[in-house]
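hi! just following up on the protien thing from before. the input was this:
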Amino acid sequence: MTNDYLITEKPFRALAWFSFPMIVGNIFQQFYTMVDSVIVGRFINERALAAVGASYALTNIFICIAIGGGVGASVVVSKHFGAKDYTKMKSAVSTALIAFLLMSIGLSLFGLLLNRKIMILLNTPSDTLSMAMIYLKIYFWGLPFLFMYNVISAIFNALGKSSIPLFFLIFSSVLNIILDLFMVTVLHLGVAGVSLATLISQGVATLISFFVLVRILKRFPSETVQLFSEREFSRMFKIALPSILQQSVVSIGMMLVQSVVNAFGSSVLAGFSAAMRIESICVVPMIAIGNAVSSFTAQNLGANKEERVVKGYKASNLMVFFFGLVICFILELFNTSIIGVFLGSHGTAEALKVGENYLSFMGWFYCIIGIKMAVDGLLRGAGDMKMFTIANLANLFVRVTVSVLLAPVFGISMVWVSVPFAWFLNFLISFYQYKTGHWKVLNQLTH
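and the predicted 3d structure came back as:
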């Protein structure tokens, strides 16, 4: 396909072509974090799995900041690309890389200094705290690689080249798995080996992807490029900040909810952590579709094709319900076997039961997060961020409030009962904003 297929091909075909590499790539990205948990659970012990799981709630916030920043950059780059203003496009790219590199270094220092205090505040079980600290210290040293990789991948997506990040994710995933097994089973480094494997694989993928991006950008004719543009940064920040919030809502909620789960002990935490790893795979298609809608919306609004945005949004919902049915079928039939892969022979009956119950309940509701992500993606791509932000704050409020108030009284199941209600409330608010047509007014004002 040509570079501008998002604004020329039929919406369903364009979105499917664009989102498929993102789905496969993100599955690989989640797959190697899942493999971390499998290797830890099977080759070390259940407490180590609980330690990595306890760390995940904190580390995922930083991942979501990186993804949200990348989305902000990609929307701005997409609009310039759709308008064929390659000079501004390149300036936006260099501005994004510089800004988010500096941000990642600052957040890395923050994490290194405060991770122990945060984990204690989250009621991390004492028998897993020391291992969680080892894992987190190494993780935060590698945070700049994580940030730069996600921003570079978002820029590739903005240019319509979503297949390129797929190749790098497959490469880094395979490398990570090999290093995991070597460092845990041969060098016996425990959770430190798992964290080192992730740092090395992401670092290598980031460096290679940067050089590939530079080569691709050279193909687009342009005038003198401003390396850091305050105007482009301001435009990115206005989109990235609510986008970071949206991407982080689930993770912030999970971190706060984590303190509730932690209070039930390391066995419950291990089962819950295993289920969370599976959920991270289940939501991949939905997140990818939402991000695809963002780029699709931004490019078509940049080309002043509002009618295609509506058609693309309807096409995205068809994709969501297809993936929702597939996920439901798999989880309802195979939840016991899937959780067993993580816990192995070391797993307790309590851990297994918690994981099974979570997956069998949640399997019916992933289509809700899909339709939420699709409409959120349209608003984000259009730069219509006010109600978008309110919707995601409402999502966070419901999840945390229900979990904190009801789980200690009615049991751990209240943690996951709150999730579909929060997703649906988010969808209703965002869909209402979409129907007002305010996103069209914003586009007309910027042209």
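The two ends are 27 Å apart (CA to CA).
The longest helix spans residues 306-343.
cheers
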